Amino acid sequence: MTLTVDAKILDEVFGPGEGTSIEERAKSSRKLFVRGIDQLAEFSGKARGRQLTAKEALDAYGFEKLLEAVEDGSALLTVSKNALGQVLRDRREQLGLDLVKVASRARVDPLVAEAAEASKQVPIRECEKLARMLGLDERFLSVRSEPAGNESVAVRLRTIGREPGRMTPSAVMAIAEAAWVAMTQVRLEEELGIRPRPTGIQHNPNYATRNQPAFQWGYHLAREARRKLSVTSGAVPSMRALAEETLGIPIVQTELGETIAGVTVEVGERRAIVLNRSGKNGQVYVRRATMAHELAHLLYDPPQELNSLRVDDYAELDTFSEQLTDKVEQRANAFSAEFLVPQVQAVETFRKSGGSLRTVMDLFGVSFTMARYQVWNGLGRTKWDELTASTTAPPSEWEAQEAFTLDYHPIRDLRPSRAGRFSAVVVRAAEKKVISWDTAAEYLEATAEVVRAAVPQVQELYPRVFE
Amino acid sequence: MKTPRFDPRSGRGVVRPGGVSPLPDDAREGGPSTVTIEEFTQRYPPQKPARAADAPEELRLLSEAEGVRSLDAPPAIGEQRISPRCLGDPREGRHLWVFFENRASYVLELAQLASPPLPSGRAKHTNLTGGAPASCGGELWLDPVDHNLLYLNGGSGRYGPKTPEQLEDAVGVFEARGYEVVSFGWDVDTDRPLRILR
C-alpha cells in the first residue's frame, strides 16, 4: 500500500525532493539517519552510531519513527529496557554457545558483550556484531522483545547441536552467522529487484516407488534438471555460478569443521546453501559434488523433508547412493553424480580417451570416486578393478572457477562467509541507497572508504548483480 | 571537562571511540558542578524553537493555574511521581522542563489542568514559552520517595541541548538549586540526549 502524506511533512522528514509517496521520497532522499540502541535521530557529523539511509530507516522502523525523530530530536526505538540483553542472551543460550567465544568470533570485547547481555548502555555497533554472529536481524535489536531472524533455523540448530558428536559449538556459530548472511542477502536482493529466474523445476515427493528406487529417481531428476537448466552436454562450468546466478540460491562458504560437508538453511520463502571450506571440500571436485548434492535437496525435496535446516556429512556424500538407507540422501547422492557427470557422457568420454578415467574427471570436474562409479555403472557394472587413475588432484582451472572471490577478494581480510556474491549485493545496495555506505562497511567489516574503493573490482567480479 | 571511560560492568561512563553512555552525575571532574541559570543563559543564549509549531495550540502559554511550576528549591512538587528506572511506558509521569526567562519551568506532559484542555492531550515545550526563545529544555521525572531527586534528560525537539556539555551545565543549574539529579546522559551514537535511563 502506498501512503501519501502532506508535502510539507515529507520535506521535513526527507528533505526536498520529487515524488508524492513516502516510499518514493525515501528512495530519493539524500538524508541520513542514525541509530543507537535506544533511539533514532537525524544524522549529524559527531554521531557514532549506525548510519542509515532514509529508505533503510523507513523499512526498519516505519514513517512514524522518522517523523518523531525529526520533530522531537530523536525517536525512541526501545520496546523495553531489557529487550536488548534478553534477545542476545536467549539466542546465545538457545544455541548453547559460550559468551566469550561468541564475543571473540564477533571481534567484540567480552566485557562489552557481557554488558550488552545485561542491557547496559553499550555502542550499537558492538551489539550488532554480536547479533550477526547469532543469526539475528540486527536492525531490530531492542526494538523487538522476541528474536528477529530465522527462529526456526535456531531451533533446529539447537536440536542438532545437542546430538552428541554431531556438531561443534564453532560449527553452530558458523551456521548461525551464515544464516544471517543468507537472510541479509535475500532481503537486499529483494529490495534491489534481483529475483531467481523461473526454471520450471518443482519439488518432487517421489523417493522410492514400486518400480523405481530412490537412487534411480535421483538419476531421473538430474537429467530433468540438466535439461531445464540448459546444461545438456558436457560439464557444469561452475556449480557456484549456476546456483547463485541462475537459480538465485545464496551460497555461503564458511568453516564447519571436518565432518560436515554442507547445510541447507531456510530463508523465508527461499533457501541457501552453507558450504564447508574445511575438510574434504578443500578439494574442488568434492566441493562441486557437495554443491550438487545440496542443489538436489533445494530443487526437489519438499520443505517437510528438509526442515528449516538440513546438515549433510562427508560420510554420507562419500557413500554409494544405493548403500544409503535414508531415501532423501540416496536420491540426492545419485542426483549429484548424474548431474555433474551423466553416465552416458562419462562412458563416451572414457571410451574416446582410450580408457582414461582421469580425462573423465578433469572434463567434468568430478572426483575419482564419482567418475569411477558413473563409468562402472555405464559399462554395466564391470571392470571395477581396471578403473584407475594415476593422480586424483584437480587442475587449478577448476579451483579458480569455483573458489572465485574467496581467495582474492578486493576487500582484504573479509570473512569467507561474506566474500561471495553477498559482498556484491551489499555494494549494489549501498549504491542504490537501500543501505548506507556505513552499513555496507559494517557488513563487509571494512571502512566505508575501503568498500567504495573496491566497487569497480566487485562490479567486475559479479557483473550480473549490477545489471 | 574530563570524560570518564566506559565501564562495561556498570554500563556507565563514556565509550571512546564510537560508544554511548549516560554521563554519571558523580563522574564529572571534581564532582558535580553548579551553575546559576543566569550563567547558563549567558553561556547558551535563548534560541527560538528548532522547529515551527504544527498547530496554534502548541504556542499557547500555559499558566501556573494550569499546572506550570518552577524548580526554584526542593522539594519538587508534583502529583505524578514515577521513577524512570522502572518505567513500562516512558510517557508515564513525564514532565517537560525549560529554562525560560531565568526560571526552570516544568509541567506534566499530560497537562490535565490545562483549561480549556489541549486538543492533542499533551503539552509541548512551547506551551511553557509561548513559542518564545529558551536556552534549554528536556524531560523530567519526579522520584516517588525522595522529593529532592529529579531524573532529567534533554529530550526536546524544540529546545534540546546541542552538546553533552550543555546538558551537563543544565544539570548543574538544578544542582545549584539544591536538587539531586540523575541525568540520563548523552547518546554518543546519535549525538543526542539520551531519553532512556539504563
Shape of chain A: elongated
Report the C-alpha radius of gyration of chain B, rounded. 16 Å
How many β-strands of chain A, per DSSP? 8
Adjacency order of strands in the biggest sheet of chain B: 1-3-2-4-5-6
User: Percent helix among the residues of chain A?
Assistant: 40-55%
Give the DSSP E fraction of chain A (strand runs of 2 or more residues): 5-15%
How far is it from the N-terminal to the C-terminal residue of chain B, by CA? Answer: 23 Å
Give the strand content of chain B: 15-25%
Multimeric organization: heterodimer
SS element count, helices of chain A? 23
| Distance linking N and C termini of chain A | 28 Å
The rough form of chain B would be described as globular
The value of Rg of chain A in angstroms is: 24 Å
Give start-end ranges of low-pLDDT stretches of chain B.
Answer: 1-30
Low confidence ranges of chain A: none
How helical, in percent, are the residues of chain B?
Answer: 10-25%
Average pLDDT of chain B: 85
Instruction: Please give the order of strands in the largest beta sheet of chain A.
Output: 3-1-2-4
Q: What's the tally of helices of chain B?
A: 2
Taking the sheet with the most strands of chain A, its summary is: 4 strands, antiparallel
Structural class of chain A: alpha+beta
